[in-house]
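[Q] Does anyone have a clean structure-token version of this?
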Amino acid sequence: MVEIANYEDLIDTHGAEPAQYLRDEFFKRIQSWVRPGDQSSIQKNNSYLVVLKGVSTPAELELATAKLTRIFEQPYVLLGQPTAINIHVGFALLEGTSKNIQSEIKKARIALRQAKKSDELYRIFNIDTQNRLDDHYNLIKSLEDAVELGEFQLYYQPKIHAGFGNLVGAEALIRWHTKDNKVLLPYHFIDVAERHEVIRPITWWVIKSAVAQLAKWPSQLGISVNTPPSLLLDDEIFSVVHDALQIFDIKPSRLTLEVTENIMISNPDLVLSQLARLRELGVQISIDDFGTGYSSLAYFRNLPADELKIDKSFVMPMLESKKDEVIVKAVIDLAHNFSLKVVAEGVEDEATAKRLSELGCDHLQGFVFDKPLPIQEFEKRHLT
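[A] Here you go.
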């Protein structure tokens, strides 16, 4: 299966009619690759199906691919300008005496998707790829079911005032209680959820549930929730946050939305605008994992945030590593110079907590105070 790469981008760049010229040239060149004994047909989505007769080993596919590469080496002259026609290819080798051509086409499409995803010229289908994809799609379906069945729970990890040692709030962290009685941490499923629409209902549920819980706590406590980068740029987040605060009559400043700093990489101007709009609602903005991502002073100067969270990769070794301690101190001083609070995460022992307090850190979070806990246990330990 051969497909012209990024056809929609070609339309955006050159316009619909010139892009059609490129598409026609793509099909013309593919036909020059097809031998008299092969079978071929145009498919949907600007792809071309070719059944290569007598090609049955990876080595033979290498030769066929080399010829295809040569065919597309020369750019196409479009409106007087040389324009490359890029392609992706998915191969499936016919197994044994299988006559199920539709099954082989499906495998070739799977390999094509893998080639596009990895931005490679081609991929050859193998059973491991199929198994991974099956697991991937099964996980998506399970996540969708989990939303409907209420299998997610929020756990709460305390945030402590560095100077006085009292509770100032908590971070709400999602856990998935599966049908088979497992408790899955976010790293098991959040990456997949973020690549699909299921992250939206999960995140909206987290925000609403956290705010609902906050309504039951003393008014001096706050709560933090993680916000996926894709949804920070989704305007629906404004109505979700606003409605949750209104329904439960919560002062907006008690809610903190945590965003990772690497969200600035793709479209910093839009991100800054969205963060500013969220702050207009009165909520707090925290930059999570600070120091591990974008870290540009050019955007930091105008950053609409209230808090920085120093990543645990700097906090945990700081007593043994002078360089890490210097970084921690520099972040604290920089943040305070911009009137930002500082939270250190990954505080594992009393000595580290004491040193962070001496350096002027505002709030602390880590296992020395407690691990993330189910709500009943959190309230029993920290609110009674």
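[Q] Thanks! Anything notable?
[A] The first strand starts at residue 2 and ends at 4.
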